[in-house]
Amino acid sequence: MESVASYRALMGFISLTAIVFEINCEHFEKTLIEDLLMNYNNEVRPVENRSQVLIVTVGVQPYRLLRMDEIEQLIRMSMWYRLSWEDSALSWKPDRYGNITRINLPVDVIWTPPVGLLNSLDSGVALLFSGGEDVLDNQVQVEFNGHVRLLLPAVLSISCIMDMSMYPFDTQRCNLRFGTWAYTTDDLAFKADVETSALAQSKENFSSSAGWNVLQYRAIETKGNNNEESPSVTFTIELQRQTTYYIVILLLPCFSNVMLTLLVFLLPPETGERIAVGINTLFTMWVNYLRALNAMPKSPHLPAFCKFYYFVMFECVCAIAVSCLVISFFHMNVNIDQPVWVKTHILDRMVHLVFLHKSVRYRLKTAEKLKKEAEMFRSRFEGKSYPKITIGLNLFVDNSLKDFETFWRQEEWKLVSLVLERFFTYFFLFSVLMSFFVFAVTVR
């Protein structure tokens, strides 16, 4: 019983001590705040000498990219803003106030720097750090040495000039310029918060729902305005577009349409479907381009993707036109003799470029061989005493040679169409591959 009574007495003593200590702490904190704010003027810059420049450290940590509007030239982000400065009027000795080293004060009872995001599209941003209605409920942390820290969340729309020439493989750089028009560089100076900028570099601290990744985030300048000499600090955030969606939606259909255009050259001319396939493929490519164009942001600069698509469609149009030329040679009238330049440049020279010289040479030799055999067959019966047989045989040989001549003229034109078809097939493949290569190098 005595041990139980002793335990209860001990616990009661500890509880009473804790209550007394808490009351004393509340008393010390209340006394400290009253002493600090007794003669404090929140409209005066907290410096001991009027000529002294007050340094304000500005830290901005982007938290989430909410919107990227290329048409309106703006981005909307949620961010954490951190301001810190020294206020000698808010310093104290901890041993006089129960060893309290840090307190929280309402933001509207002390002086705060009138910092604003100068290139913001939202109204009232200039009052964001100066005790406006949006931040009256926030508090500042004040340390015993007079160091004041203010942490604020905000969702802002920021003006950003975007270059869409490399769309959809573009990288955009947007500036966040913080400054004030209330003071000059003789009164106020801004310094970038290195710690906050380092946190912003980490991808774990930034999330994007708009299809962009953060490549770099840094403070690029700390200086005054050239005309007003107002202090400012500028942060640059570099964003890279996520390209997987655009590769699947835009580039793969284009590549598949180009491969289908090859059917214009691979289908036999006898089918009569070459032109239909080419026109349908071109129409499909145009529909895909219009669909991509609707999703593409408007820009004064023609994106590299549009140039690439236009050039590929031009190649498809040329493929259809060349296919018409090849078909016209394939069905050329047999009564039309081949010009000398056709035989010289196409059947004698171009065949070597398309690796058809052996096939064409073999056909030409075969035709000459058949002609010689027919003439040799006729010469066997010349001078013989079989006039009726000779007359009938000559008539048969003449008709056969005439039919063979007609057939061979048609084959010669088909050889021309074959050589041209092979040449333009290689040229089309080369131009398409070069188009993809130049596009890849351009957007890299």
TrEMBL record:
Ranges for the Neurotransmitter-gated ion-channel transmembrane domain? 250-364
Domain (Neurotransmitter-gated ion-channel ligand-binding) spans 29-243
Location in or out of the cell: Membrane
SUPFAM superfamilies found in the cross-reference section: Neurotransmitter-gated ion-channel transmembrane pore, Nicotinic receptor ligand binding domain-like
Chief subcellular site? membrane
Entry GO MF terms: extracellular ligand-gated monoatomic ion channel activity; transmembrane signaling receptor activity
Keywords from UniProt, A to Z, are: Ion channel, Ion transport, Membrane, Receptor, Transmembrane, Transmembrane helix, Transport
- Keyword Transmembrane (UniProt): yes
Which residues span the membrane? 245-269, 275-296, 308-330, 423-443
Q: How does it sit in the membrane?
A: Multi-pass membrane protein
| InterPro entries listed in its UniProt record | Neur_chan_lig-bd (IPR006202), Neur_chan_lig-bd_sf (IPR036734), Neur_channel (IPR006201), Neuro-gated_channel_TM_sf (IPR036719), Neuro_actylchol_rec (IPR038050), Neurotrans-gated_channel_TM (IPR006029), Neurotransmitter_ion_chnl_CS (IPR018000)
Domain of life, per UniProt, equals Eukaryota
One term under GO cellular component? membrane
Q: Which family does it belong to?
A: Belongs to the ligand-gated ion channel (TC 1.A.9) family.
The protein here is known as Neuronal acetylcholine receptor subunit alpha-9
Source species of the chain:
Acropora cervicornis
Q: What is the lineage of its organism?
A: Eukaryota, Metazoa, Cnidaria, Anthozoa, Hexacorallia
